[in-house]
Every structure is written in structure tokens, then in C-alpha cells.
Amino acid sequence: RKGNVIITGASSGLGLATAKALAEKGQWHVIMACRNFLKAERAAKSAGIPKENYTIMHLDLASLESVRQFVNNFRQSGRQLDVLVCNAAVYLPTAKEPSFTAEGFELSVGTNHLGHFLLSRLLLDDIKQSDYPAKRLIIVGSITGNTNTLAGNVPPKANLGDLRGLTGGLNGINSSAMIDGGEFDGAKAYKDSKVCNMLTMQEFHRRFHEETGISFASLYPGCIATTGLFREHIPLFRLLFPPFQKYITRGYVSEEEAGERLAQVVSDPSLTKSGVYWSWNKNSASFENQLSKEASDPQKAQKLWDISEKLVGLA
Ligand code: NDP
């Protein structure tokens, strides 16, 4: 049978390119988990994804209620789940004030980390039950959360501190809207959320890989300077960022190429190792990359896991 893969945020950018790459291989049925049904349908059509190879299902990661509803709807579809890709994200670099999810968590960490945390915790059981030979759970990371790289050292740097803001609920009322308890900074909140994504993947690996055989992975697909991720940035940035990445840092990768990379992590038999953060070199060959000290700290990962469980109502 075809493999079934859920991709969150498949209505644009990396998620859409990955959906296309997988659906075109013919061996995958892609469940596009998106907050805007019409946008997703239009995107799938204009990308030319074969109709029989995708289904769109509503998911708004900024609402835990919606995450639970999505899981119920997926279960009712009767499909087995073989691979889950947590890809959706928001990035609010120019926001002066924090915005919040339905449950009142700062929007970037609430969407990128907490929404995906609940989703993957709930769907773990479904992946476990699948009879597919290579089952995987993938969470898209980023270089920007990795302070052991040049890009990760551009201020404001990611830093979760002692997680006091997260412990307080990130609500901006009786706790800070930032994980480390500091002043709100949208760019930093995004980077922090990506550190959470990478820590979560490793904690999943430690807790569940042996028992379930599921491969847990994260990746940095390269700088895809043309995606909607930068939509909130100032116009001059949006104009100069793609050529800067293309010709100066040479970290630029097209949406199509990045989609092929993520599709490899979903389906390539040589990329099944669990607990790995994948990256690609200049010749587009994959390799196991090193994470920064903070993004690979097992104690922090455990603490993040415990606090996140409480916030999403699992503990
Ligand atoms: P895009 O903005 O193009 O795509 C983000 C997707 O997330 C969109 O489909 C968006 O939906 C969706 N989304 C946002 N909020 C929600 C929500 N509340 N519920 C459901 N879906 C939501 O950005 P990219 O493709 O660049 O980003 C994809 C991933 O790649 C992210 O995890 C990002 O961190 C990562 N990444 C990107 C890099 C880059 O250079 N672009 C580099 C490294 C990592 P909608 O279409 O409705 O807005």
C-alpha cells in the first residue's frame, strides 16, 4: 500500500514543496494539515499535485482544541498513519507586542512548539499501530536556533534560560511572553520555538525509539529565502534577503530543493537513523549535523517536556 504522511502547514513554502515531491513519487498519500482550507486546495491544484494523492484536513495549531479535533477527524478517516511531519511555523520578527493563541500562549512558541507537541504526543499512538516498515516522526528545526553556527549567532540569540516564562504559561499577564522570562522579542521567540522543536525530537527519541521502532528526526533544509515565512518582515528585508543568501552566504536553497530534502527524511531508506538532526552540504548530500549545546541538553529537553505536558493538558 501507499504510505500515509501528515504534513502540517502544507499550504505554502517547504510543506507544499514536500507534499508535491512525495505525492509525485506515487508511493505516498499526503494529508495536508492546514488552517486555511481554500488556500491549501488552491496551492495543491496550482502545484499540480495529483488529486488522488492528497487530502486536506483542517488544523489550526494555534488552538489546542483544533489539534484535538484534527486528531479525531484523522482517526475517523480510517487511514493508518506512517509518518508525521511537523512543519508549520509562524515568524513575527517585527512585532512590537506579543500575540497569543486561543489558550493564551505567545503565538510563535504556542504554534510552532506547543501545538506540535500536543499533536505529536496524540498521534504517537497512531504511528505505533501502523504496520508500515519505516515509521517516522519529523520536526522541522532551524539553523537559527543553533548558536554553534554563524547564522545562529545573529542577535537576538535563542536562549530558553531556566524556562521560567514557559512555566508561568507564556501569557504576558502574570508571566513573561518569552520562555526565558525576558522582554518580548518576536525574532527571538521564533528561534526559541525552534530550539524547543529540536529538543522535543531528541526527547521523543530517548523515550520512545526503542519501544516503538519509530525514527525521530529533525532537519535544517537550508535557507529557503523565498517562502512566506518572511511575510511579516519589512519590505527592504524581503527584497534583499534572497540575493544575500544566494550570493553572499551561499546558504540559499530553492523551495523545490528543500522539499526534496524533507521528502528524503520522510522516505529515503538511508535516512532512517533516529535522534538525528539532518543537514545538507554544498553538493546537496545529507549528513548528521551537530546541535548547539542548548539544543542538545538532555536535562533541558526533559524539563521542557514536563512543562509542555502541563500546558497542553496531558499531565
Ligand atoms: P511558510 O510561511 O511558507 O509556511 C508556513 C506554513 O505554516 C504555512 O502553510 C502556514 O499556513 C502554516 N501555519 C502557520 N500558522 C499555522 C497554524 N496556526 N496552524 C496551521 N498551520 C499554520 O514558511 P516555510 O515554508 O519557510 O516554513 C516551514 C518550516 O520550515 C518552518 O518550520 C520553518 O521554521 C522552517 N524553516 C524555514 C526556513 C526558511 O529559510 N524559510 C529555514 C529553516 C527552517 P498559511 O499558508 O495558512 O499561512
From TrEMBL:
Q: In which pathway does it act?
A: Porphyrin-containing compound metabolism; chlorophyll biosynthesis
Chief site of localization:
plastid
GO BP, one annotated term: photosynthesis
Q: Which UniProt keywords apply?
A: Chlorophyll biosynthesis, Chloroplast, NADP, Oxidoreductase, Photosynthesis, Plastid, Transit peptide
Stated EC number for the protein is: 1.3.1.33
Q: GO cellular-component terms in the record? A: chloroplast
Q: What is this protein called?
A: NADPH-protochlorophyllide oxidoreductase
Q: Which organism is it from?
A: Ziziphus jujuba
Residues shown, of full length: 80 to 394 of 394
This chain's function reads:
Phototransformation of protochlorophyllide (Pchlide) to chlorophyllide (Chlide).
Catalyzed reactions: chlorophyllide a + NADP(+) = protochlorophyllide a + NADPH + H(+)
The record's family statement is: Belongs to the short-chain dehydrogenases/reductases (SDR) family. POR subfamily.
